[in-house]
Structure prediction request, 325 residues.
Amino acid sequence: MKLALYSAQKYERAAFSAHCPSNVHISYFEAPLNAHSAPSCQGFDAVCVFVNDCLDTHTIDTLAQQGIGLILLRCAGFNNVDLAAAKLHGVKVARVPAYSPEAVAEHCIALMLTLSRKTHKAYNRVREDNFDLNGLLGFNLHQKTVGLIGCGKIGSALVRILNGFGAKVLVCDPASPHGNFELVDQQTLLARSDIISLHCPLNDQTYHIIDEAALCAMKPGVMIINTGRGALLDSKACINALKTGHLGYLGLDVYEQESELFFKDRSEEILQDDVFARLLTFKNVLITGHQGFFTQEALSQIVQTTYLNLEQFAKGEALENEVKA
Prediction:
């Protein structure tokens, strides 16, 4: 089997090469997969892509013309894949449904604690021999109400951690099983939560689920955490709420236009995204570059599951992690 891996990072090259089966020949492409780069997959059996690769109708048309039979997602989300187009061409799609829910859940807590206790500001102060505590006043997670919109594997892992902090957990997810939380509707969650964390998939129903109306329904000073998908949140609406002070804290590991920014060193470039640049000006906004998944354990699971998906395809077996239209 010949596999083309797109949007390849150095850490992925090392991890995938170290565990590559003897019957698989893997080639790495630093460029993302999209309609422009799709012709480069000629001669391969399968492609492996990540969250910001664009698998739209045009891209999949080209993949099918080049003889690609399998799209391997080395992530859980599949909103960037036109599943109807894949089905039309008989191209199978498989994902990594759960590489490490705890990794993302723990990153949520890191964002919450950094924002609430201002440890990033304290770190910089101490390095400059400034030990003044003024401006660093935080708040406890204990007894705070934390609302989770979506409660799959990551949300469930976060619930367990929040229970340990003694937080009151609300969940809005009709598909969620019972747990150590209170199941509520979205409006109740927005109105009662001190912290809101997003863990739902991105689709037509959840696009900009946090918009101007949702923000207005929240408590003044609320904290929002998004480690899901960037387009769950309307960035411009958040900027307006940050300017008025109604949105008290914002922690992002994802961004709606991140495909033009993340996973590259752009320190020598002029930032062209005015919305992102405005977000960076707020002292109560913390942004990380889609690293919530990035732990040793998660990367190992991504590699193992991706090769499992490829092996099942090569043998003509049913794909246990297949995504269907």
